[in-house]
Design goal:
heteropentamer, A mainly alpha (about 475), B mainly alpha (about 525), C mainly alpha (about 550), D mainly alpha (about 100), E mainly alpha (about 120), A: about 475 residues, mainly alpha, two-stranded antiparallel ribbon, two-stranded antiparallel sheet, 14 helices, 6 strands, about 60% helix, B: about 525 residues, 2 strands, about 75% helix, globular, NADH_UbQ/plastoQ_OxRdtase_su3 (chain E), membrane (chain E), translocase (chain E), NADH-quinone oxidoreductase subunit A (chain E)
Chain lengths: ~475, ~525, ~550, ~100, ~120
């Protein structure tokens, strides 16, 4: 890790510092690396299969059905059977596709999904065959950025697959999907910022360490027990992360990309057989990945939940943390499924509106607020300063909300007034607006239903940007 | 001196031009009157200067020096010696006459001549400025800016369809020369900066103590060339003379008077004043080439003049020949020759000016400058023909008329130093007789065709315009002293500056002076 | 205090001190930037009907306040040193910078007047519509307009201010792009000949991006050699033979200088990097062209001078031959091509290229006189150009028609509109370098510097090129004054107070700088070194280190 | 690994981009080549920064990224505009550019 | 570099797996020719002819991409600052807030001018 701060001299100097969190990494022997890689790979595939099965079972239960229960105990081998079935299906490559891109797209979608898990810490340092090592493939000084990077690369799989398909549904789905993913990626990336402020590092292991143990917070002179999870300390960030992780993985209620009602299968409409399976696999691995990141960054990682340590001192020793990690992961994954069972799909404009008009501004305000508080604390500003800054910020936020609300209601009132005027004008003259409506008193036109108001040509144009 | 006479002489026409230009278009008659009044006032100022000028006094008189662009050592510096004084006087004299001559020409001008009159006044200011400047930079500024009014006078108020091209040709030739001169001007500055304080003041640059005295000869040659090419184009000298016939042919006669009568003298004046005095060592190096070129000019101009069918072009070619004489005189480097050359500048202005004016009257009557359109004019317009004859005879330097004095001096001076060129130059005189007499014979004599019968003779105004010139030609032919008196000391000082003495083998300097006196006596 | 497990990396204490920024010295740039940002806010929140006046007032007030700040700065500048550096020495405010800033601000003000005067005629009602489409017609009827142009101009001006003031390559690169991007967009907004305008924008953009990539790679190489992007450090590193990381790094440095020069020469439009100029000048809306032709050139040369005179000062002997060739090529090639042009804006574009060549002769001089001469030339050329383009906006093909681009359409203008034609003639004469105009003094200054530095052949070439350029300037004058007007004739918009004042300013500047340049040289421009032999004076002394 | 190799790679990438700009006719591809050049510059900066042991080059790389992004925004806007025009009714030949 | 090697190994493994899957499907799946099967899916009707290059789509996507770039860049600057927030202190905070204000203005512009409207 290098400290990237500019000194007061013209020459920008640097002080190379070894990041304390990275000391334990990079020294693994090759067999250990190989083992870890295989383990993560296997973990991904197995988790994906289990997740698919679990999802169907749980949703079945929630919908008073049974779900798959034929293959293996509780139907646990259902996904495997599905996979084999897909492998035996005909691999159709439509005539109009761009062959190379079409074939490579699923690969491009799958590989990044796997790679993101490389930096997830499954547990602390353990001993494997006499070799001290972390239960984590590797860690990077920019660890979390790898998640964002792989997520972005996953978009290529979607876009290229959609484009190469040469089908309108696929193209539309792909565009929608990529627009959605990149939109939510911004909010997601912003939700990490507060975490980094508190952790002071971007290494995942460092973030997990930063959440270890219970902390105390000194607030107005009194010591208060504070939970150490960032999910609690930085609740808004966590909430937004949860929303974005759902959006990022194209899951319900944000699965517009493959909204069957509108655009068939979305970007993978034209894919079949194992190519389709790869997309499918990637989606579920992505779910696992973002859940693992949620656990790592916000839910204390592999550390045991706070109350546990109170009565079980050894909960964080040895291999046990792996269990805590898996438990948390399963809880988050369950949440995904729960969402899918409970919520209807949103409209596309609502989805984008939420991403751009709510999540991002809220995040920005939140980041500034957190940073201000933190800086004020570290600068040891007096209580009066802190209070006044807090109140100023609150006042600004309230004012902004009020103004926004007023502008919205004004706009609504204006629209209502306009609609009313239109209606009135139509009542007086059915020809209003130039739409050829036969007069109401025409002999054969006795319907009492009011004609639909039409936007008149004379109305001042709405402004358009770009389009 | 309390009154800045020279500045006044420059500013008066300049302001007058501004006033004329700002007059409303429907008052162009007033504009013309104002222009004439201003030019007469300027003439009065110049006469005042001439009266106060002391021929035996310091070289530069009426000096005025003011810092202009201190960074470049540029000054607004004016002053006159004898040579520049007579040229300024010539300019100041010709302008009112030209205005008078052009009084009725203006009907076919796009703006009733208001612009033309304003341009003439601008030109007058520039002409006085260029002769009065004693700062190289200021001289260059006037030298270049002068092009603009002439350009418009030819291009916009000229004659014939070709005038735009002629104007362009004139401008480009002059600009080209001017730009080369700019390099040399900058070179002078750089050289003076190397020698100490950078300056453009002519007085500080020249002379054995001057800033340029230590100049390396190679550099001096290049700088000399920069100036000389510009002046040669202006003069005009073979082979860069080709713009003059075109320009004169397309110009109004009044414009041509100023162009050939005064403007082109800047070239010869510049050679005398700047080429020679700034770079004497280079000037010596260039004597022979220049003499050869001037001889070619003399003969070539005369020969081509014979072949012309357009009177304006014919006169222009005669001028090329005459300018050859002037340059020859300058580079002969004897005091007689140079005095003759200086004198020639004035006399040529008078003679050619008169010739152009008379031709202008013809054109105003018949609308043509072609020789074949005129025959037997002297029967219907004897006064016109008379004036034409005198002016023409002046052009061929008939003894008794003023150009004779100058031409004679040039011959004598040149012969003393370079006998062979002098002999060759004499061919020019013979040819001059040919083309002038032929011109007169073809247009003025013979039977008068019917269409010319109704041609009126000179009106009072026209007579007023041309008569002063004729009078001066005759007057100075008989009594050249008023011209020689201021010019001679200036020439002697020039000779001193460039470190040349008369080569007359058998005569010492005193006798040379006596010889000069004798030549004065010839005129009387 | 909330401690996150004491996990913060311990940081170097050296980095803790907060930097000290002299905001007054940055004030002009900050003001322009603030006005630009406010302009965006205005776009977002002010109702459409009020946007234009608000934007105009904002832009004007911004520029004027910036200029006032500049005047204050001039007073505040320490008398005993060339200037001050600010913000980690990334920005240098010294006398050359201040002069350029003043010039750029005034030119921008003048261009802005043209923007304001020609909003309907010059700019497309809605850039996003497809030319000739129904949609475009609707926008035209609705009198839509892009009030965004004003903030864009301000952003471009910000870049123009920062570019010559930047004291390291990073700032310079950022400034270069801040300067360029708004112009790329503005270029494509012409109302008439939209397709052409759009293609001009595309061409400008692609070539601009291409050249800035070269610029950047050059910076990278120089950085590799010197270990820093700061001009002063580079100079010192070059003197010391490199930062020692790359063995035998001189080729690296040479290549770096060459590539940096490519980027800079592109911006100033020197041959062989001039290709964009005619197309862009012709295709862009004329007010934008005016801004580009004046402000951009001034800023770009400002930057170029600083780079060559400060960062590469010790390497004069290495880059001088290159600039020799470029200067000669620029003057000769551009002058030769310009002769064949038939379109006014293209002609002015080529003339701008030639002038770039003239200024390059002063760069070759690498002396304080050269610096002063180049700066003066820039100011003189800038004002004349703005005036010339202001005239171009007024002359139309027919009543209500497009601007008369073809030279032949200008025939007879001198007869019908003597004043306007007179102004243009004055500008053209200034371009040609006729005495008593600013162009002459400028030429004199640059040629003088070049000659003093021993570049006599360059000066001669320059003079010959001047003669060629004079030819085509004069041709326009011939057309205006000596040709009969065509049947339709040029139709001239009566200049409003805005355009009128721009032309007035152009005329005034052209004359004042031509007749009384003394004060400018004595008080505004860097002075030649007082002590010592002139040849040994370095232009570097004019800059703050 | 010798950091000079990265410099060489950067030079190769830069050259590919530069040549690509010259030989390709499609505006988008030309544009992408320019972006490639910028990224090559970034690589060079970061490598040199590593060699010098300072972070100045890395900071430059940051800014270059920003500039490149802004360039994308501006450039795509212009290119899109032209493509929209071209597809619609009156298509002037691309020869407009070949002046 | 050792830090990055495992990621590459993992990626390589994933790629190998994916490519193997494609290959396996090719081997294992049946192959029965049917012209209709090779046409793009379009609810059973004749497929609409597609313009080359993927057809036209609304400019909104382009705007989204632009916005994404703007904010992505913003994040580039936020991350280093966030990591070193404590060290940078008040100066860093003010600088970043100013930066955010500027970005927010661009954002507000986009919002107000309808760049964020989806229909």
């Amino acid at each position: 890790m290098t400290s990237t701060i500019v000194a007061g001299s013209p020459a920008l100097t640097t002080v190379a510092q070894a990041d304390p969190y990275l000391e334990g990494f990079g020294g693994d022997p090759w067999w250990l690396i190989g083992g870890k890689v295989l383990a993560i790979f296997g973990f991904c595939v197995v988790m994906a299969l289990l997740l698919i099965w679990g999802e169907r079972r749980i949703i079945g239960r929630m919908q008073n059905r049974l779900g798959p229960n034929r293959h293996g105990p509780f139907g646990i081998l259902q996904s495997l059977a599905d996979g084999i079935k897909l492998a035996l299906k005909e691999d159709i490559v439509p005539a109009k596709v761009d062959k190379v891109v079409y074939v490579l797209a699923p690969v491009l979608s799958t590989v990044p999904a796997f790679m993101a898990l490389a930096i997830v810490p499954f547990g602390p340092e353990v001993t494997i065959f006499g070799q001290e090592t972390h239960l984590q493939l590797t860690d990077l000084p920019v660890g979390v950025l790898l998640v964002l990077a792989t997520a972005s690369m996953g978009v290529y799989g979607i876009v290229l697959g959609a484009w190469a398909s040469g089908s309108p549904y696929a193209l539309l789905g792909g565009l929608r999907s990529s627009a959605q993913v990149i939109s939510y990626e911004i909010a997601m990336a912003l939700s990490f910022v507060a975490v980094f402020m508190f952790a002071g590092t971007m290494t995942t292991s460092g973030v997990v360490e930063a959440q270890a143990g219970g902390n105390t917070i000194t607030l107005f002179g009194t010591e208060v027990w504070a939970p150490s999870w960032f999910a609690i300390v930085l609740l808004p960030s966590f909430v937004i992360y949860v929303i974005t992780m759902v959006g990022e993985t194209n899951r319900l209620p944000f699965d517009l990309a493959e909204g069957e009602g509108e655009i068939v299968g979305g970007f993978h409409t034209e894919y079949s057989s194992l190519k389709f399976a790869l997309f499918f696999l990637a989606e579920y691995i992505n779910m696992v990945t973002v859940s693992a990141i949620a656990v790592t960054l916000f839910l204390g990682g592999y550390h045991a939940p706070p109350p546990v340590t109170a009565f079980w001192a050894g909960a964080n020793d040895g291999w046990w943390p792996l269990m805590w990690f898996m438990l948390k992961l399963v809880v988050v994954l369950f949440f995904f499924i729960w969402l899918r069972a409970s919520l209807p799909r949103v409209r596309y404009d609502q989805l984008m509106k939420l991403g751009w008009k709510v999540l991002i501004p809220v995040q920005l305000v939140w980041i500034v607020a957190v940073a201000t508080m933190r800086v004020l604390q570290s600068e040891q500003a007096g209580t009066a300063v802190v209070v006044s800054v807090v109140f100023t910020m609150l006042a600004l936020i309230v004012a902004a909300i009020v103004m926004w609300d007023r502008s919205v209601s004004r706009q609504e009132a204006a629209e209502a007034a306009e609609a009313a005027a239109q209606e009135a004008a139509l009542r007086d003259n059915p020809m209003h607006g130039g739409f050829p409506v036969p007069p109401k008193n025409a002999p054969h036109y006795g319907s009492s239903v009011a004609a639909e108001p039409r936007v008149s040509r004379q109305e001042p144009r709405k402004e358009v940007t770009g389009a | 001196m309390t009154i800045p006479w020279l500045t006044l002489a420059i500013a008066l026409p300049a302001l007058g031009a501004l006033g004329v230009a700002l007059m409303p278009r429907d008052r162009s008659e007033h504009a013309k009157r104002i222009a004439l009044a201003v030019s007469v006032a300027t003439l009065a100022v110049v006469i005042a200067i001439a009266v106060q000028f002391e021929p035996g006094g310091p070289r530069l008189q009426f000096e005025q020096v003011q810092s202009w662009i201190p960074r470049f050592g540029v000054h607004y510096a004016v002053g006159v010696d004898g040579i520049s004084l007579v040229l300024i006087a010539l300019a100041a004299l010709l302008v009112p006459l030209v205005l008078l001559a052009a009084w009725r020409d203006t009907a076919d001008f796009p703006d009733d001549g208001k612009g033309y009159f304003a341009l003439v006044l601008v030109l007058e200011a520039m002409m006085i400025g260029v002769f009065a400047a004693t700062d190289v930079f200021l001289f260059y500024v006037f030298f270049e800016v002068m092009l603009i009014p002439v350009y418009f006078m030819i291009g916009r108020y000229g004659r014939g369809a070709d005038r735009a091209r002629a104007a362009m040709k004139f401008l480009l030739y002059s600009l080209f020369g001017g730009l080369l001169m700019l390099v040399a001007v900058i070179g002078v500055y750089v050289a003076s900066a190397r020698a100490g304080e950078p300056t453009f003041l002519w007085t500080e640059l020249t002379g054995p103590e001057g800033a340029l005295s230590g100049l390396d000869t190679t550099v001096a040659i290049w700088l000399f060339l920069g100036f000389f090419v510009a002046f040669a184009i202006k003069a005009p000298m073979w082979p860069v003379h080709t713009w003059l016939p075109t320009a004169a042919g397309s110009a109004r006669p009044g414009t041509a008077v100023l162009l050939v009568g005064v403007l082109d003298k800047v070239g010869t004046y510049g050679m005398l004043r700047y080429c020679l005095e700034l770079f004497p060592q280079a000037a010596h190096w260039f004597v022979w080439p220049v003499i050869v070129l001037s001889l070619i000019s003399i003969v070539y101009g005369a020969v081509l003049a014979i072949g012309q069918t357009d009177m304006l072009r014919l006169i222009a070619y005669t001028s090329v020949s005459h300018f050859g004489f002037i340059i020859l005189g300058i580079f002969a480097m004897t005091s007689q020759a140079q005095a003759g050359a200086a004198l020639y500048m004035v006399n040529h202005g008078l003679a050619t000016g008169a010739l152009f004016l008379v031709v202008g009257f013809l054109i105003a009557r018949q609308g043509s400058a072609q020789l074949e359109d005129y025959r037997g004019v002297q029967r219907v317009a004897p006064r016109l023909a008379g004036m034409f004859l005198i002016a023409g005879l002046a052009g061929l330097s008939l003894p008794g008329l003023s150009p004779f004095v100058s031409e004679f001096l040039v011959f004598v001076g040149t012969f003393a130093a370079y006998p062979v060129p002098a002999v060759i130059a004499a061919v020019g005189v013979v040819l001059a007789a040919l083309y002038i007499l032929w011109l007169y014979q073809r247009t003025m004599t013979g039977p008068t065709p019917d269409r010319l019968r109704s041609m009126p003779d000179l009106s009072g105004r026209e007579l007023l315009a041309v008569a002063p010139l004729i009078a001066l030609i005759i007057g100075f032919g008989l009594v050249p002293r008023p011209l020689l008196e201021p010019v001679t000391p200036a020439v002697e000082q020039t000779m001193e500056q460039i470190d040349v003495t008369d080569p007359a083998p058998s005569l010492d300097e005193a006798e040379a002076g006596a010889a000069a006196d004798q030549t004065e006596g010839v005129g009387e | 205090m909330l401690t996150a497990g004491g996990t913060l990396a311990s940081l170097d204490p050296a980095v803790q001190e907060a930097p000290n920024i002299d905001y007054l010295m940055l004030a002009p740039m900050l003001v322009v930037f603030g006005a630009a940002v406010l302009g965006v806010v205005v776009e977002a929140f002010v109702p459409r009907a009020h946007r234009r006046p608000t934007q105009l007032v904002l832009a004007f007030v911004g520029l004027v306040v910036a200029f006032v700040c500049l005047l204050v700065q001039v007073r505040e500048l320490p008398a005993d040193s060339p200037g001050v550096t600010i913000a980690f020495a990334t920005v240098a405010i010294d006398r050359p910078t201040l002069f350029l800033h003043g010039t750029v601000l005034l030119l921008a003000l003048a261009s802005l007047l043209l923007f304001a005067a020609n909003r309907r005629e010059a700019f497309a009602p809605q850039a996003a519509t497809i030319p000739g489409s129904e949609e475009e017609r609707e926008h035209e009827e609705a009198e839509s307009e892009h009030t965004e142009v004003y903030p864009l101009v301000l952003f471009a001006v910000l870049g123009m201010l920062l570019f010559p003031a930047s004291n390291d390559f990073l700032t310079m690169f950022v400034a270069l792009e801040v300067l360029s991007f708004p112009l790329y967009l503005l270029c494509g907004l012409a109302r008439t000949r939209r397709l052409f305008s759009q293609e001009a924008a595309l061409k400008y953009f692609l070539l601009g991006a291409y050249s800035s990539a070269f610029f950047l790679f050059g910076i990278a190489l120089v950085f590799g050699y010197a270990g820093s992007v700061h001009f002063v450090d580079i100079d010192e590193a070059a003197a010391a033979g490199g930062a020692g990381v790359v063995e035998q790094g001189e080729p690296l440095l040479m290549l770096g200088i060459a590539l940096v020069a490519v980027g800079l020469l592109f911006k100033v439009g020197a041959v062989p990097f001039h290709n964009w100029k005619p197309d862009v000048y012709q295709g862009a809306p004329t007010p934008v062209t005016a801004l580009m032709a004046s402000g951009t050139v001034v800023a770009a040369f400002g930057g170029l001078l600083r780079v060559f005179f400060l960062a590469f000062d010790g390497l004069t002997w290495d880059w001088r031959p290159m600039l020799w060739i470029v200067a000669i090529l620029t003057m000769v090639v551009a002058a030769a091509i310009a002769v064949t042009q038939r379109d006014v804006k293209r002609l002015l574009a080529y003339s701008s290229v030639v002038h770039a060549g003239f200024i390059l002769t002063a760069v070759v001089a690498a002396s304080p006189e050269g610096l002063a001469g180049a700066l003066f030339y820039l100011a003189a050329y800038g004002f004349t150009t703005v005036g010339a383009f202001a005239v171009v906006t007024l002359v139309r093909v027919r009543e209500g028609g497009a601007e008369a681009g073809e030279l032949s359409q200008w025939a007879g203008l001198g007869r019908s509109h003597p004043l306007l034609a007179g102004a243009l003639a004055l500008f053209l004469l200034a371009f040609a370098g006729i005495p008593l105009t600013s162009g002459f003094i400028g030429k004199f200054a640059v040629f003088e510097a070049a000659l003093a530095a021993g570049a006599a052949p360059l000066v001669v070439v320059g003079v010959l090129a001047s003669a060629i350029t004079a030819f085509f300037y004069v041709r326009i004058i011939v057309l205006m004054y000596f040709s009969e007007p065509q049947e339709e004739g040029p139709w001239v918009v009566t200049p409003g107070p805005l355009t009128g004042s721009v032309i007035g300013v152009g005329v005034a500047a052209t004359l004042v700088l031509g007749i009384m340049p003394g004060p400018v040289f004595d008080h505004l421009l860097p002075q030649p070194a007082q002590e010592g032999v002139p040849e040994e004076a370095s232009p570097m002394d004019m800059y703050v280190r | 690994m010798d950091p000079m190799n990265y410099i060489l790679l950067a030079a190769v990438l830069f050259t590919i981009g530069a040549v690509g700009v010259l030989v390709r006719r499609n505006a988008i591809i030309v544009f992408m080549c320019v972006e490639l050049m910028l990224n090559a510059c970034n690589l060079a900066f970061v490598s040199f920064a590593r060699m010098h042991g300072t972070i100045e080059g890395q900071i430059v790389a940051f800014f270059v990224m920003v500039v490149a992004a802004a360039e994308v925004v501006v450039g795509l806007a212009i290119i899109m505009q032209i493509f929209r025009t071209r597809r619609s009714a009156s298509i002037d030949d691309a020869s407009l550019l070949k002046h | 570099m050792e830090l990055y090697t495992p990621i590459l190994v993992l990626g390589g493994l994933a790629a190998a797996f994916a490519l193997f899957s494609l290959f396996a499907a090719h081997i294992a799946g049946p192959r029965r020719y049917n012209r209709a099967k090779l046409e793009p899916y379009e609810c059973g009707i004749e497929p609409t002819p597609q313009p080359s290059g993927g057809g036209r789509f609304t400019v909104k996507y382009y705007l989204t991409a632009m916005l994404f770039i703007i904010f992505d860049i913003e994040i580039i600057f936020l991350y280093p600052w966030a990591v070193h927030l404590d060290a940078l202190g008040l100066f860093g905070l003010i600088a970043v807030v100013l930066f955010l204000v500027n970005v927010s203005i661009a954002y507000a512009y986009e919002w107000r001018r309808g760049g964020l409207e989806w229909d």
